[in-house]
Amino acid sequence: MTFDKKAGSVRFLRADTWSKAMNTSSTFTEYLSYRHPGRREELSTDDMTNDFAVTYLYDLPFAHGLSLTAGPAYTALHGWQMTGITRFSAGFPVTLQETDDRSLCGRDGSGLSSVNLPNYNGQPIQRFNPRTTAALQYFGPSPFSEMILGAPGNPNRRLSRGSALNNWDMGLLMNAQIPERTALLFRGEFLNVFNLAQFLTPVGNLIASNFGQVTAGRDPRVGQVLVKF
Question: What does the radius of gyration of the chain's CA atoms come to, in whole angstroms?
Answer without folding.
Answer: 25
